[in-house]
Write a structure and sequence with these properties.
Blueprint lengths: L23 E10 L10 E5 L6 E6 L5 E8 L1 E8 L6 E7 L5 E9 L24 E5 L11 H5 L5 E3 L5 E3 L5 E5 L23 E7 L13 E7 L6 E13 L18 E14 L2 E25 L4 E24 L4 E23 L6 E25 L6 E22 L4 E25 L2 E21 L12 E20 L2 E18 L9 E19 L2 E12 L3 H4 L10 E4 L7 E14 L2 E13 L2 E6 L7 E7 L2 E16 L2 E14 L2 E5 L5 E5 L2 E16 L3 E10 L2 E3 L2 E3 L2 E12 L4 E8 L7 E7 L2 E7 L5 E9 L1
Length: 803
């Protein structure tokens, strides 16, 4: 359908502040008399360097004969055990890095001592995560997006892209599960990702990209998981951080508006004060992170030319000026009930107010006739709250844990649209109102047991999700609104799941194997008077295995093979029956008959590292059954395009990801990332049922695309840092069409002051003002081309102070 030649061109990107991780390991064991099997207390336990016998760490066993030594790095040690009346024991211990806790089991000392057998735990140097299934990025070094949002910061990370709707894509797929502190929330975790643009990057400690999740994670999200981790201080007493950011965007227009509409936003202000407080004293730790955001943006500025098979040509513009105010706060308390029991209570609150004012003029081909002008005003409130209670019990063996947690999320979507339809012969004023309340309850039980050469993990999760939705239309004269599509609908989802995971690490070989089994029941109950859709749903019981095999070829060279099976369950917004009138002639409508898509993924990863850098590459292949895709169709006698989700059948995604990082010298380092993938969608035929049945057929499509990023970091004297980030996105296929290449450059400058406690920053996003979204779409009886010149350029200045 489209050409398959990739256009990757020149790419320039930036060191993604990737952690060079070297995890600290805790080793425990139980000491007993070899003859009587009685526990031995006050045994000296010492770890020494095998090179020079220097002391690395040590402790003594307690009254139960147990010992625990923390903060050991991966590597080889000599373990010495000694007690008066017993023969000293000397053993070789190799400490790996896949598990934060290792249990050496029962170690026996004899009065007529015989040296114990050798205990070996494999290990190697850690760079891009020891399992190569996860990449971790610190946002404190993300200079080019300091003062921006989490969504803006994500655009710099390897494999991550975003579309102009703010949806996050990982390796070319938008089927991503996004967590906050390991939990799904209404802000980001249930198919709604727009909340990411309202979370300041200053509140976040790090972001984890998990391309190959193990069975302990929820099975939803075929592209993987992104985990956003908030900052949380553990120091004694009072400490914290305050900051403020201000800036301007859209300094000059990218494209002039069509005649006769309101002025598009320019010089849009940005303002974001933030505060983080933490107080720790003895058994009690309290924390608070709060941000207020004011952001004006030219949220959409899309120019479209539509062609119909009857020869009609329509030129239009969708201009949307947006003002967003948002207050967000995360607070909680950690309480140590005892040495082995702890409670954590936390809450995350967000209140977002969005005001949109837009103009959509419709002209003929040469702009000599304006057929009508559609103006809209949207007043939307999004209120979200997530409350969490976590109980943790630590068994006597270090790292032996039982966690019990309950999370409740509430999200209210309250939207009001006011539409003015100005025609040559009349003016109509329409209104519609939507209220949707999302209620999600999660109960989790997780168990971890360290072993001599790894650990076992097991758990249970139960989720109940309920979303009642109510839509009301109030039509004016000659309204285009479908008043018969209004009413109510209720979304109910119940998911119990069990999982088990086993990790084994020995010598140069690693195995991680797990299985998750989940039962899903979805019921979508529709207003019986709806003119097209009826109540629908589905249920299934399915296994979701995950396997990882790794082999250390030699020092600092590692090969890993992954397999997992995952699912993408339709979100409530995907099946919502009410048409969304962002513009009156291209509508989005849900499909209650939509079913899940299941994905099998296999990946081969390779990593090597050296003194001042590393190389990481991964070859992956996904097979998707029941591909979810939005299809646009028209009905006879109408020019309105209805975009509706459908299950299209089989699709494939094969790609290569490559990352290299190098510290050239003390003042310059770089990080480059390349992701090239080939998308294939098999031929399919679907029927859009709304508002009338319409059949669409597509031939097999194949396209090669990708993205490239280059980060350059310069460290100048007097604690002055500069970062340059360049991003190139190659052309790609999208439902019924293709999207053109995109390119942008971001800059960031940071100056550390006040003896390291203060920071000044200045940055700019899309400083060359080159980023725009160009699409070509072809359907049955129509086609259109579109370019969105929305706001992408912004300059920010800010200050933060730690105390």
């Amino acid at each position: 359908m489209f050409g398959s030649k990739p256009q990757l061109g020149v790419f320039f990107f930036l060191p993604m502040f990737l952690f060079a991780q070297n995890p600290k390991i805790t080793i425990s064991g139980l000491l007993k008399d070899a003859g009587t099997k009685a526990p031995l207390s006050f045994v000296n336990v010492v770890f020494k360097s095998p090179q020079d016998s220097s002391l690395v760490a040590g402790t003594i066993s307690n009254e139960e004969g147990r010992f625990s030594v923390a903060e050991l790095s991966s590597g080889t040690y000599v373990l010495e055990l000694s007690l008066i009346g017993y023969r000293r024991s000397i053993q070789k211990v190799e400490v790996g890095k896949l598990s934060a806790f290792l249990d050496l089991g029962i170690l026996e000392l004899q009065e007529d001592a015989i040296q114990l057998g050798e205990i070996v735990v494999s290990g190697q140097q850690d760079e891009v995560n020891s399992r190569m299934d996860k990449k971790t990025f610190s946002l404190s070094d993300n200079l080019s997006q300091s003062g921006g949002s989490v969504l803006q910061a994500m655009k710099n990370l390897p494999g991550i892209t975003t579309d102009n709707d703010g949806k996050v894509q990982l390796r070319g797929s938008d089927k991503v599960t996004i967590l906050i502190d390991g939990k799904q929330t209404a802000l980001t975790g249930f198919g709604n990702q727009k909340g990411l643009d309202n979370i300041p990057a200053s509140a976040i400690e790090k972001i984890e990209i998990i391309n190959n999740p193990s069975s302990k994670y929820d099975a939803n999200g075929n592209a993987g998981i992104i985990n956003i981790i908030y900052k949380k201080n553990q120091e004694e007493g009072w400490n914290g951080k305050i900051g403020v950011m201000t800036g301007l965007g859209a300094l000059w227009p990218k494209a002039e508006s069509l005649p006769g509409i309101r002025t598009q936003y320019q010089a849009t202000p940005k303002f974001n004060p933030s505060v983080a407080l933490n107080h720790r004293r003895k058994k009690l730790n309290t924390f608070l992170q709060s941000d207020w955001l004011l952001d004006k943006t030219l949220n959409r500025n899309e120019f479209t030319t539509r062609f119909y098979e009857d020869g009609d040509v329509v030129r239009q513009q969708v201009q949307r000026n947006r003002t967003t105010t948002n207050i967000a706060a995360k607070a909680g308390v950690d309480y140590a009930i005892s040495a082995n029991d702890a409670l954590t209570f936390s809450g995350l609150y967000s209140n977002e107010h969005v005001l949109d004012d837009g103009d959509i003029p419709y002209f003929n081909q040469d702009l000599s006739e304006r057929r009508r002008l559609w103006q809209f005003h949207e007043d939307e409130y999004n209120t979200a709250f997530t409350g969490s209670a976590v109980y943790q019990h630590k068994f006597k063996q270090a790292g032996h844990l039982l966690n019990l947690s309950f999370n409740y999320t509430f999200h209210r979507e309250d939207e009001k649209y006011f539409l003015t339809n100005i025609n040559p012969t009349f003016t109509g004023r329409d209104t519609f109102k939507l209220i949707a309340d999302e209620n999600v309850s999660d109960l989790n039980l997780d168990y971890i047991k360290p072993l001599k050469h790894g650990r076992v993990e097991a758990g249970f999760k139960f989720r109940r999700r309920y979303i009642p939705t109510d839509m009301r239309f109030f039509p004016g004269i000659n309204s285009p609104l479908d008043t018969n599509a209004a009413g109510w609908a209720n979304y109910g989802e119940t998911i119990p799941a069990l999982y088990g995971n086993y990790i084994y690490e020995r010598h140069n070989f690693e195995v991680e194997a797990g299985l998750r089994v989940e039962y899903v029941q979805l019921k979508y109950t529709v207003n019986p008077e709806h003119n097209t859709y009826k109540s629908d749903g589905y249920n299934y019981t399915q296994p979701f295995p995950s396997v990882r095999l790794s082999y250390n070829l030699k020092a600092n060279h590692k090969l890993s093979l992954f397999y997992n099976r995952r699912v993408d369950r339709p979100d409530e917004g995907d099946i919502r029956i009410f048409p969304k009138y962002d513009e009156p002639e291209i509508l989005k409508v849900g499909n209650p008959a939509l079913k899940p898509q299941f994905t099998n993924t296999i990946e081969l990863g390779y990593r090597t590292s050296w003194a001042k850098g590393y190389w990481y590459s991964a070859l992956y292949h996904r097979i998707v059954d029941g591909t979810k895709i939005r299809i646009g169709t028209i009905v006879p006698g109408s020019n309105i395009i209805y975009n509706i989700y459908q299950n299209a059948g089989l699709s494939y995604n094969t790609g290569l990801e490559w990352i290299v990082q190098q510290s050239v010298n003390k003042w310059f380092s770089f990080n480059a990332n390349l992701n090239v993938y080939r998308n294939v969608i098999d031929a399919f035929t679907v029927e859009n049922r709304y508002p009338l049945p319409s059949v669409f057929s597509a031939a097999k499509t194949t396209y090669t695309a990708g993205n490239a990023k280059l980060n350059l970091t310069f460290k100048f004297p007097k604690q002055l840092d500069l970062q340059v980030t360049s991003i190139y996105l190659a052309p790609d296929i999208i439902p019924q069409g293709k999207i053109a290449a995109r390119f942008s450059v971001n800059l960031g400058l940071k100056k550390t002051i006040q003896d390291g406690k203060g920071e000044l920053f200045l940055n700019g996003s899309d400083v060359l003002n080159t980023l725009r979204i160009q699409k070509t779409i072809t359907g049955s009886g129509f086609s259109y081309t579109t370019t969105d010149y929305y706001e992408t350029q912004a300059f920010r200045v800010g200050y933060s102070w730690k105390f």
